[in-house]
Fold this protein.
Amino acid sequence: MLLEKVVSDARDPSSALVDVEVDDGHIVQSVRPSEASAETPPRLLLPPLCHPHIHLDKAYILTCNNDGSPQHPDYSDLCPTSGSFQEALANTSKAKERYTPEDLYLRGSQLLATSYSQGVTSMRAFVEVDHVTGTLPLEAAVRLKKDFSHLIEVQICVFAQDPIFSTTHGDENRAVIEDALARYAQSYGAIGTTPYVETSREAALSNIEWAINMALEHGVHLDFHLDYTLEPPSSVPSQKPLVYSVLDLLTKSHWKWATPLAKTIVLGHCTQHSVLDDDARKTLVRAVLNTLLPIHFVGLPTSDIFMMGRPDDSSKSSHHRPRGTLQIPSLIKDFGIQACIGVNNVGNAFTPYGTGDPLQLASWAVGIYQVGTAKDAELLYECVSQGARSAIGLLYGNRIGPIDKGDHIGGMLLLGNQRAMKLPDGPRSTLTVAPRWRLSLRDVVWDPPESSLRAVLGGQYYPDFPEPHVTTEMMITWYLSADEDAPFEMPWSR
């Protein structure tokens, strides 16, 4: 197979255009100056995209436009009215009462198909298990994982959205999940919970400890929705952000030695950390790095911005609305924290807007995080590709750089360009406009190509680097010894 007119180094818009000869095993056999015509659009070869955090069972609840049949229930009455988090929880609970196997499979397959067309080849897919849904979402996810296994690596996360140590149904929810964990032991790769939905601090701590123990018992990754508020933390030690309790309980569990193959711990949302002052943030960073654990933060800005920072009825500054999302680029560059960004939800009460495209998310992140340099664009692409894979415990991924003979490019993402734009110019003529080509990673992040210009190359994705490519120990060595004002440069940017 010949790939014509490929940008030889996606980091550099002035790099040479080459023709890449690839054998049936997707190994590069030769790289030579391109002989394609001047009109042939150039192409870029990049690592595929990854969803580190997406809710499979809740996708498209508000945008599926089901016909209201017994198999495909109507959800149109559950659209947001206030848009608050409590309303989203309540409306989603009502939606869960209507779930059917057919509905869950259809909406899930639509999400997977759309994701693949966008260039996604791996994901952590959350499915809720509780006294309302039973194991229906998990059963649908297992089917979807099998049916799409030749296209996407689906890592199922068995997820407790609702309380498991408080409220009327807490004990029942926990029992349903424990039964599911035992019965589907070979089908999922992570366990997740939401400690902040518990009705007391004590119950939240029990939630965390239970999740850690379950993950250890079943040998899987761990994922917490955590510290989802913009309320400044109390100065009382017992009321510090829950992340400190997670770190303490992980350390007491001997996670690093008790889990096989360095299972990761992901902390999602953590919006409260965005209101910490600089000294408190440095204290938190040191606490995370001192654990020597494979902890990753996942920012979920599209959901956070929709939910967080809403003024209450008594507000006298109703137009003052903080972004209310974890500052992922700063955590990576300034503190050496392992972090990435994810879509979280699409088409439901928590995030009713968007297409679920990770590359579009990276583009929005330029404005959300106010990071507009070419290096920032590279970092943001990492946050929805290799960095996202690393967070969910998959091999890190191919380095972005020159294409060389011997490289394995199976499963990588090929991004094309339009030849020209043709517009009507009267009843019998056409107006042709010269194309504006994307020639670098910067162009791709700032101006994502539509899905029709993206294609995942055939074959399995074989990353070059074993996980972890950037170890926690490497980061700690840097952070504890470096000058506080020194910037942190991730190894992939060198």
User: Anything to note?
Assistant: The chain is about 30% helix and 15% strand.
